[in-house]
Amino acid sequence: MTSRSRQAAKLARLLSERTGRSVRHVYDGPRKGRYGGWHLEWTDGPTRDTMQALAAEHVDQFPDLPPLAEFRFSRSRTTTADAVALLLWLDTDIDHVLRYDPVFWFGLAFDAVEHPDLAAEVWQQRGRTLYMLVDKAAEPTMRPGDPSPHRVVGDDLADRIRTDGWEATLEWLDQQAGPRTRHLHAVE
Q1: How far is the C-alpha of 182 from the C-alpha of 177, rounded, in Å?
Q2: CA 74, CA 107: separation in Å to the nearest integer?
Q3: Which residues pair with 75 in a beta bridge?
Q4: Diameter of the chain by CA atoms?
Q5: Domain boundary among 76, 107, 127
């Protein structure tokens, strides 16, 4: 293992400790355009900008690493965190509904929301419900040329928000989740 690899591993470990996310370092050969080079990868958690800023705070501790500009920061997403990010993004500024085409909402929201995976359980449930609707929209009845499931759900969500308002849309999502499990205790 080279000194660069050891230091990249230490940087990834340090970023993991700081963010509570598992951060991996990957070297994919010499960088050629959009391919190859050094990568730092994680799932959900902080935004790309936040991870880059954290790395910039500590990169001086690792003199053998290439400049951070040569690293690719790659944040992948779980389906629930993707949907939670969208809901939190809309909750923060409902005018996003008017500013952006719903087909772009999921990407814009995920790029803007920190740690959607740590949101309160009510948002996690709403996110699971929203993604259940995305899955339904993607059922095998889709044909080539049909709009993407994200487009279908985004358009439906936008219509609901414009027609019924944000609070009513959240209530509708809560209803789609079905009845909450209740624990009954026997009384003696």
Answers
A1: 14
A2: 13
A3: 42
A4: 73
A5: 76
Beta carbons of 64 and 75 less than 8 angstroms apart? no
The pLDDT of residue 135 is 77
Asked if residue 182 belongs to a domain, the reply is: no
3-state secondary structure 143-187: CCCCCCHHHHHHHHHHHHHHHHCHHHHHHHHHHHCCCCCCCCCCC
pLDDT at 183 over 50: no
pLDDT tens-digit map of 131-173: 888 777 766 666 677 777 788 888 999 999 999 999 999 999 9
179 has a pLDDT exceeding 90: no
Tokens matching residue 103? 């087909």
Give the integer Cα–Cα distance in Å for 176 and 130.
Answer: 9
**Among 86, 93, 148, CA closest to 111:** 86
Domain span holding position 166:
79-176
Predicted TM-score (pTM) of this structure: 0.84
What tens digit of pLDDT does each residue of 72-85 get? 999 999 999 999 99
Helical residues (DSSP H) of the chain, grouped into ranges: 3-19, 48-58, 79-92, 96-99, 105-112, 121-137, 149-164, 166-176
> How far is it, in rounded angstroms, from Cα 21 to Cα 42?
7
